[in-house]
Each structure stands twice: as C-alpha cells, then as structure tokens.
Amino acid sequence: MPTAIIADDERLMRDQLRMRLEQVWPELEIVGEAKNGEEAVELVGQCRPDLTFLDIRMPGKTGMEAAREIGERSQIVFVTAYDQYAVEAFERGAVDYVLKPSEPERLKVTVERLKARLEANNGKPGATVNDSVTAMLSQLAEKIAAPKPKHLQWIQASIGQDLRMIPVEEILFFRSDEKYTCVQTEKFEALIRKPVRDLAEELDPSLFWQIHRATLVNVNAIEGVTRDIRGRHLVLIKGRPEKLEVSRSFLHLFKQM
Questions:
Q1: Using the 8-state DSSP alphabet, how is residue 23 labeled?
Q2: Buried b / exposed e along 9-22 (16+ C-beta atoms within 10 A)
Q3: Residue among 180, 205, 183, 184 nearest 193 (CA)
C-alpha cells in the first residue's frame, strides 16, 4: 500500500484532504499529519512515506523550505488555495499539486498522476523539486505573502453521513440548541457541535453579528428588522421564512439601520 503524510497548519483542511483522499484513493494509507514544515520533515524521517502533501504557506518553515529538506525521500505534492498563481508553476515541474478546498474531481486527476509516477519509479518517490520549480514557487510565495486571515474561513459540518466544507460567506446564520448548532445556507442546513459562543470568537465580527446568546447572523443576509405584537425585535433573512429574535443586549447593533 502506498503511504502519505499531510502537512497543513489548518486542522479543517487536513481533515478535508484526508476525507477526500479516502474517497478517491482508498488504498492510500495516511500515516501521519503535521501542523508545520518542521513537523513534516520529522515525519518524513520517521515514517518514510511515499507521498508528502505540503501546504505551501505554513508558519515557521514553509512547505517549500520543507520540500527542499525532504529531497528525494518522498514525492512532494504541494497544497495551495491560490489557483491563479499556482497552476503554471506546477504544470511545468516534476511535482504535483492539490487546490484547496480539495474537490473529488480535481483530486482524481492528481491521484492518477501520482499513481503513474509511483508505478514508473517502481514505487519509489522519484526526483526532488528541481531548481526551476523552486524559483517559480518562490515567486508564488511573494505574491501570497500577505498575512493569513485570523478568522475562520471554512466550517466543517455534517450533512447526513457526509462532511461538507462550507465557506463562511455562504452561511446565512448559526442557531444553537442544547446539543447542536444549525448552519443554514441558501441551499441546505447542516449541523456542528461547536456552540455559538465559540463561533462568535472565531468568526469575523464585521461579517457575523451575534444577536442572541444562541444566534449569529451574516450581516449580508439581513433583509430588515421588525417587531412582533409582544414588542420583540426580529431579524428578517433574505429569501428565508425564519425570523430571528434579537436580545435586548444586542439591539444596539441595529440603531444605524
């Protein structure tokens, strides 16, 4: 069985890539995960994986720096969210890439290339990252050198038996009960176990307003605010029948509306 490790500083991205790989390449065994380049290099030395999936940009040692140290010990697969910059660099070099968030159809193409390379090399990792690819990746790093956002960009949620990576800008609102938090988008509803109080600390406060101890709403999804016969303030959501109650302590958010 071929083996691999995954290195990405975002746990949700590691989880999603692992899940997608299990779907399109069930024979591949993930033998370890790393949060940064240093851990990736150590894991390659310990586990000797056939493949190493490396996020290009990680704190401390980057994916590119780790790739140079890994050398020929493992076939490098770079992981990046920057499609418009990355494709040319990867297509020209003896390395493969995965765009994140990883989608099954795109990942299948990478998996077929990786299988062919491993077969051509009799199961051995193959050539290291060459100088031309390193130069192009360095240029890529300069273009994406802006600091990573501190706020959550994706929510990993359950829909039936499936896991879905949901961009936060597509979420209309979060609403919690005793056990779960409902994640509502225009097209579907999903469930997570993280409470609203934790989400409120991790989401961009300019995009999501907490209007109740159990409710967060996407500012861009607000159609308006009304009052019922009991005098309660209710937020109307664009295209949705729900009316979300606003607690008194959060009414100040709507003074400018």
A1: H
A2: bbebbbbbbbebbe
A3: 180
- For residues 29 and 113, the model is more confident at 29
**Residue 95 to residue 70: CA distance in whole angstroms:** 13
Give the HSE-up count for residue 139: Cα atoms under 13 Å, Cβ half-sphere: 12
Single out the residue of 42, 39, 49 nearest to residue 77, CA to CA: 49
Reported as a single tens digit per residue, the pLDDT across 123-133 is 565 555 556 56
Looking at per-residue pLDDT, the higher value among 93 and 161 belongs to 161
To which residue do tokens 């968030």 refer? 101
What is the DSSP-derived secondary structure letter of residue 116?
A: H
Give the number of C-alpha atoms closer than 13 A to the C-alpha of residue 46, restricted to the C-beta side.
Answer: 11
The Cα 251–Cα 34 span in angstroms is: 44
**Measured CA distances, 143 to 56, 172, 220 (Å):** 12, 32, 29
Cα 232 to Cα 175, 213, 247, 255, distances in angstroms? 18, 15, 8, 15
